[in-house]
Design a protein that fits this description.
Length: 292
């Protein structure tokens, strides 16, 4: 496998209030994105992960894709521009996960020019379900139809960009039929997560309910990558808004394990402070997980 993916949750802020959101971190420092100097330090450290992992685990990663996550990353356009600038200097590829609510033509241009992949968080195509989940702002509730319009616009400017859909299966949507939406979106990958009860058990689902959602969408099994709670544990390289590696613990403990800030102690020292299972990481990318 050539690609190493590092997920940087650049902010906890979001214009939505999803009830099961796990993007809540303990800390006292200001989010890194408000300091261009620290953004540069962090991004210059990230490429060193190639040598660290290849030497420690015998992997053969050749490049890094820095995936910008939130909260909602598009709340901070100036920080995104600074990250793009620093990533180009450091040889990092960029991708982004967004709820899509803040997209406009300017963002379509930026994404088309600077990102190799764009992911959209789509948990439901029904307005009432999105309201119940908390996927809405004071202005409007999430509309899947708008996501389809922006996917088409981005593909017009960047035909080869990767399109991904992320869906969290929860109590309100586990019986939902999203087949028509996925057919129209035509993503290269559909990532389906079982709701992870890190912050709350609210809206959690059983394994059987999770399987119900998967079975209802087996027509797309060739692009589906599904993850239960165990598969999500300690299998991601994740950086929090303060620039720390973080991992979720085993056995349902609702806390994160944190490293010291990467921009203060260096990425080697920070990496040594967390647990990372490279075999689980690899499993998510074989070629696409079969339906269970």
């Amino acid at each position: 496998m050539d690609e190493l993916v590092v997920n940087w949750h650049i902010t906890e802020a979001c214009n939505y209030n999803c009830r099961y959101c796990f993007a809540k971190w303990e800390g006292n420092e200001r989010e890194l994105i408000h300091n261009p100097l620290n953004i540069g330090i962090l991004i210059r450290e990230i490429p060193k992960l190639l040598e660290i992992l290849n030497e420690n685990f015998g992997t053969c990663f050749k490049y890094i894709r820095l995936n910008l996550v939130g909260g909602e990353p598009l709340l901070y356009p100036e920080a995104i521009r600074e990250i793009i600038h620093c990533a180009r200097q450091s040889g990092l590829l960029l991708s982004l996960i967004t709820n899509g609510s803040l997209l406009n033509q300017d963002w379509v241009n930026i994404i088309s020019e600077s990102f190799v992949q764009i992911g959209f968080s789509v948990d439901s195509i029904h307005e009432q379900t999105n309201v119940a989940i908390g996927r809405g702002s004071n202005r409007e509730v999430f509309k899947a139809s708008m996501i389809l319009q922006y996917i088409n616009a981005i593909r017009t400017y960047a035909p080869n960009i990767g399109i991904k859909i992320n869906t969290v299966v929860n109590e309100y949507n586990f019986q939902e039929d999203m087949n028509d939406f996925i057919h129209k979106a035509n993503p290269q990958k559909w990532k389906i997560f079982k709701m992870l009860p890190i912050i709350t058990n609210n809206l959690s689902v059983s394994n059987q309910q999770f399987e119900t959602f998967l079975l209802n969408h087996q027509a797309f099994r060739s692009i589906i990558s599904s993850e239960n709670n165990d598969e999500m544990t300690q299998s991601y390289l994740m950086i929090d808004p303060e620039g720390r590696f973080f991992q979720n613990h085993h056995h349902g403990v609702k806390v994160y394990q944190y490293s010291h800030p990467i921009h203060k102690v260096g990425i080697q020292n920070a990496f040594n402070e967390i647990t990372f299972h490279v075999d689980k990481f690899h499993h998510r990318y074989i070629p696409l997980n079969p339906m269970r």
